[in-house]
Amino acid sequence: MRYGVGILVFILIGAVSCGGGGGGGTGSGGPPGPVDPPAGSTRVTVVARDAFGSPVPGASITLLESKGTGILELNMVTDAHGRAEVVGGFEDVYAAMLTATDLFGISYEPRQPADDQIEFDVTLHPSSGLTPGIGRVTVTGGSADGRRLEFSARLYVVEGSASEGQDLEAWNIDAVGVLPCAADCVAGPAGFDAAYQGSTLNQDWVDPEPLPAPLALALLLDQGMSVALTDPMDRRLLAARYLQTRLGPDDQVALAAFAADDAGTGQAASLPEQPVTLFPTDNPGFTPDGRAYFPVIDSLATLSGGSSPLHAALAELIDFTATAAPPGNRGTVVALASSDVSDCGSPADCRAAQDALRAQSGAADVPVVVAGLSGPSAQADRRRLGPFAQFENGAVFWVQDARQVPTLFGRMPEIVAGRHGTVDVTIRLESPVTGAFAPGNMVVGTLQVVICPWDCTELLDVPFGLHIP
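Above: the chain sequence. Below: its structure as tokens.
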């Protein structure tokens, strides 16, 4: 990337629309077609579309132009048709970078239909802050007195946009630390707790290791009433649609949602089947045409209610994926869970449910990835969701803002297919309390990642929760 500052004088021409994708002209009510730029000038046209092919009006455009040894930046805004044009004495306009509400796109591939014309077609993708994840958590050692515990884990940092040029690996994980825990750290016998300090023993970047098989991805969406609090704008539904645009040509996808009548409040679930509804309800299965689910996904906006029986829904969907995934495709369940995982009560009940699911997932060879949506002001449910990171090839992603869900789902095919760069760490926890890390106890805490895209100032918390075998 070249950097610099300069001033550019230009003439802004009225934005020209294609009126729904055709050529310019006045026949369909659009503005007049373009005229030839003045001699010695170049016309730069930018067309902005979202991931579904719809125009993006009001997008802010930054054109990057080489000018000697520096860069000149020219700012514009797309019109109601997602277009903008400018004419000027440009030397080398080499990129167009666009931003809109929760969207970002960039293109370094201009077309040049004529010597005096440059065109950029830019796709804007959902954009948000970084999202942390943790997987493959395994207890690797400890001490006989239960005062020391060592475990390994794989860390993910999901970038804020899937746009061209936004490389995930550019978000360099510089260091991983462990935040000390003073209270509510270790669950064991009734009333038990123990403080601890932590340190990182090893940290290794893991290059992407793509799986040879295409995916059979079963998507499971929480439709319990708690989504009204954690996802009031139905971002999970945008995410479900966006995911369909990110699958590979040989990948297949299935769609399901979960909810159940809430015995505590009396509120009924709105889904046609409990605890999980598979779509289409008359003939559920995997399909290479994920866009065919768009009408069903949209209908879920009016079908929230009841409780969120995550464990029961996962049990059904693991079995479904194991039997219905096309031969040769790698079956994986990806679930979005809101803040109310309601189908296990006591810690012992939750552990039994999680242990059963872990055994089922391993036996069926169907990994489970859970995105836990806690909301911006809520604490991540480390006890109920953290242990999913102990599943074989499983992972948990921690989402504090529903706007992160479309970005995360857009990356999910890369994550489950092994195309996403990660960092493996080995962590040591030490406690002054004898028996703190005894078998059967549960440990919760937070890893802290130092992110170094430029100046190593960004800190990203990665919650964890693990059962000690």
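Residues 1-32 have pLDDT under 50 and may be disordered.
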